[in-house]
Amino acid sequence: MQMVNETGWKPKIVAFCCNWCSYAGADLAGSGRLSYPADIKIIRVPCSCRVNPLFILRAFERGADGVILCGCHPGDCHYTSGNYYARRRMTMLFSMLDYLGIERGRTRVEWVSAAEGAKFSATMNDFAKTITELGENRKLGDLRCKK
Amino acid sequence: MMKEPLVPMIGIVTDVRVDTPDVKTFRVNAPGGGKCFEHMPGQCAMLSIPGVGEAMFSITSSPTNEEYQEFSIKKCGCLTSWLHQMEPGQMVTIRGPYGNPFPVETELKGQDLIFIAGGIGLAPLRSVINYVRAHRENYGKVDIVYGSRSKDDLVDYPEIENEWCKEAGINVHLTIDRPQEGWDGHVGFVPNYVTELGFDPQGKVLVCGPPIMIKFVLQALDGLGFDRTQVFTTMELRMKCGIGKCGRCNIGNKYVCKDGPVFRFDKLGELPDEY
Amino acid sequence: MQLMNEGTVARVVGWEKGEGECDWTPALFESVQEMDGFVYGDYAGANLSKYCVKMNKAEGKTLVVLKPCDTLSFRQLIHEHRLNRDNFYLIGAGCKGMKDESGLLLKCKTCKGKDFEIFDEIIDDEESKQPTAIMDRMEGVTALENETAQERFDFWRNELSRCIRCNACRNVCPACTCEKCVFDNPASSVASKAPVTDFEENVFHIIRAFHVAGRCTDCGECSRVCPQHIPLHLLNRKFIKDMNELYGEYQAGVGEEERTPMTTYTKTDAEPSIVRERGNA
Amino acid sequence: MTYQFPKANAEAIVKGISRAVYAPVEKDGLTSFERYEAGMNLALDTIPTDKSMKDVFFPQWENLMHFRVEGKTIELTEEERCHQDFVIFGARACDIQAVKVLDKVFLADPVDSYYASRREHCTLVALACDKPEDSCFCKNFGADPASPDADVTLYPVGDDYYVQTNTEKGEALVKEWNLDKAEEGPVEWLKGEIGKKYEELPFAHLNLKGFDGEHLKEKFDSPKWKKLSMACLGCGSCTFACPTCQCYDIRDYDTGNGVQRYRCWDSCMYSDFTLMAAGTPRPHQLERYRQRFMHKLVYFPANNDGMYSCVGCGRCIKKCPMHLHIVKVIKALGEEESK
User: Fold this and answer.
1) What is A13-140's CATH topology?
2) What stretches of C183-258 show up as alpha helix (H) in DSSP?
3) Which pTM value belongs to this model?
4) Chain A closest CA to C247's CA: distance in Å?
5) What is the CATH number of domain B9-98?
């Protein structure tokens, strides 16, 4: 499945997935033959709190149109509390991006457990739809990386 | 000198030789064969891998080598680590030559020469040594004092053992810091060895090595009665442009990349102590 | 003040007059004779806490003159174990609002109060206890929040495009005490010395503010020193405002608690999606 | 030749120039030399501009070349040099002196062609400084605010600009403007006035005795550096505002489809300026601070027949967040001399 808007433009989406839950969730979605957009690049991280705000900004720098972070449900973190910290950090970062006038829909955090293949697929489809509607990311990219 | 000082040429790495656990020697040719440019012993060149970095390296091979240029490079940072995983055929960018060479055709001519090197410090001196060997008639007696942490850390040992040691008129004095199995040569630090060897204070001395070694070698030479005007060294500072403009290798009113890297010690003493 | 120099403290960090009326410079005094040049008054705007990091390792005690707002930074640095309280003798100096050539400093217009958070001795008078705040601290942030996303975007593009990456904001910041800044680290992928594109301007200022979030006492030095007049305090204050609203009122540098809102959590924190639900589009 | 036009016409004249024009422009309370476009706010009365004219010849960053890297091969494309004539309108004496300093660096062998191409294509129109600021001290360093050395010089007298052309390039430019010829009298009067005004400035005469190569070590070893440098934050504001600071860095940026090698300003005030794998020879702010001023006042003149690389524009006086600046250094280290 591919997300395409009227002009034929396809969004580039980066998904940071925690190794213990969401990455396994993505696996489950795959083995359950649930589809999600092919343009989503999954990056496996040991924990959602491994994601430094710079990672997200750098994804945008390099041409991402949307960035989503998936981790274990609060309370289920493999390392006990990582996702609680991630939650605060991302709230702050997203709020700051919003403050600078970057579209709110371009960033998202979702909690996806290893058993939630269906949720993973649904989340990705929904996110890709949002980004397709928002269109190309023009406000937060590095011009030098555009061809 | 090239017309466009900041625009490099493309060079090809044609051979990689492992010298010590952390030093490799790279042979560089122009894409069409031959050398990228001519140089004199002691001069340097800027090597770079686009996207990784650019840095100044001394040219290890002698100008009398007509076929290629060599760079002995120790792995110590980001760029050098990248260089160390190169294979033959890899292109690099190269620009130079930069800096003043050792005065092989003027002050050093007709003199007895003492080379004192420590570790990777042999790299720039090797160029001079091989130049002197090629023009043997122009120079007097040659002594080479070379020390390293261990036998394995002596750069380019085969050439030293098979060529330098066997050549008439050249005395090679090797030393390593600590005793090691399979080593029957001298053990001890370079400065002490220089004192032990007790050279006559005549001729010229060329020193290169870690700053701490240079400091104590100078004391040893003072002790033997050498004058600072007899001693030359080659310096290293961070460089970016190589042409005395970007400002970072500035010491006093000198730029190491342009006015150096070779300095006579009495001249160096006139500069502020910031190196 | 000079009396302190008789052995109790080895040096004094204070102010010295410059060439003109208002170009006062933070200065180091190492002997009683030098103390003749010591001044304190209307143009002592700089936050001397930053210099304490340098002085922490020096031999003997250092006497530092701190204004009420500076004591917050000092306290915060102690929380972060960057300073050892025993190495300093703190003079809390009363502040009537600091000035520069063009009048009251911006940071003094939104003064947070005249209480000294940490001190050994206070020198002040009645006048310096009067509040100097003439406007609400969060006024600027709220005004921006109420604009549309496009307006905010245009506003920040205009402001941040002036940045010349001189790093004055970073270097003056008492919270920026990393030995090696991420922006100086070639391995970080964001090291850069020039604002080559819009992105680099954005990323520098977002990350700079993010790295001090929760630790920023809102001393206002970043905006004061910016040679390009970029209102950097609006970025820091946005974080402060968000943290206050979402995680409870907090002022860095106050009280004994070392943990900041960014280094702690509760199980019932708001989800990041709250950003999408709040305020204007 | 001497010509004349009303001040009110200045904008029309700038607009009418057929080439690209760089002029001091005011935006959000800051002035800098920008490529002039209609609607911009010309700031011809500002002395000195917040950002200097250096930006035009030596921009904060510029692309030098581009590499395509594929496997083991590298392909290099050079960035084009400046090849179109342009005009700088409204340069001050200090700006021009600064360009002379930059010339000594960039036009010395080997010539920096990126800089040289811009110098070559430039016609300089200067403005005499009828209202110098308290922070000005340019005459100490060889600039003359009354008659800046450019292709064309404008003298503001009353409601008019008097125009004097000094070179053929300048004459050709002024011809385009179709101006009325004028008497030289008012120009001479203004020069006298400026001379008098300058004398009243606080830093009009600084004692520069001893700032030369001969006293290099003595100045370097002065114990005063410690106190002078104490408040320095190590930000780069002074170096970036300075019209003669020309230290630069060359960096690569991997765009994902090639590598751009660009040059950008660097600052000797930064801790990583001289950092090598083995450490740095200038580990403290004291050494970095000393380097900057020693370079301007001692090293540079030692290499360039006594020409200082400070031009007395006063920008560092205005920009330093901690109010440290070169006048304080000159006074502190100069006094030592007389004692």
Assistant:
1) Rossmann fold (3.40.50)
2) 198-212, 221-225, 233-247
3) 0.87
4) 9
5) 2.40.30.10
